[in-house]
Design goal:
It holds the Pfam family DUF6197. Helix content is about 55%, strand content about 0%. It is mainly α.
Length: about 190
């Protein structure tokens, strides 16, 4: 039966060795992304560290939320569109004010969205390493839980998961990639 783990000592060297066994037994190479090219362990580690830094900066969220919770005193049942006494100019002002002040986007990211964002921004990775990191993290979670069907994204979305758990996962993934990943190819 898969086990539930606490954050202390989350990913041990034994877990990394088991991850290497699972990776070696995987169909196809975990290190080859959709481009058909191999990503080095160092490139994958940089991507994972960039993801951890992004989550530390923007915050982590277990699941996707688009808007921050609004205070009850801010909430209003009044809808300017239903007020027939408003002129068009007043309605447009109300809409612009709402767009400027009323939408409070939540900057926090899920593990999956942070991995993709780091791949898209290009500073610490690319879309190829984003896909490879997902495969590496899946194998790490499989080794960690003992379940062949475990996936890192689903693991990260469990209700009891914390930002510290996600950071530990990303650090362990970077350690695994540097230890067991392919060496950079000579150019």
């Amino acid at each position: 039966m898969p086990k539930t783990i606490t954050p202390t000592g989350l990913f041990t060297d034994a877990t990394l060795r088991k991850t290497q066994e699972i990776t070696a037994d995987s169909y196809g190479s975990v290190w080859i992304g959709p481009s058909g090219e191999e990503s080095s362990g160092e490139a994958v580690a940089r991507h994972l560290e960039g993801t951890a830094a992004l989550l530390d900066k923007d915050g982590w969220s277990r699941v996707t939320t688009y808007f921050r919770d609004r205070d009850e005193d801010q909430a209003s049942d009044a809808n300017p569109a239903d007020d027939e006494s408003l002129a068009v100019k007043q309605m447009i002002r109300a809409v612009l004010r709402f767009l400027h002040d009323g939408i409070d986007l939540d900057p926090r990211r899920t593990l999956d969205s942070a991995l993709h964002q780091v791949g898209e921004d290009g500073a610490h990775g690319d879309p190829d390493t984003a896909r490879v990191t997902s495969g590496v993290l899946d194998r790490l979670i499989q080794a960690h839980t003992g379940s062949a069907s475990a996936r890192a994204t689903a693991w990260s979305e469990r209700q009891h998961r914390t930002h510290a758990d996600i950071t530990a996962l990303l650090r362990a993934g970077a350690r695994f990639a540097r230890t067991y990943g392919p060496a950079p190819q000579a150019t």
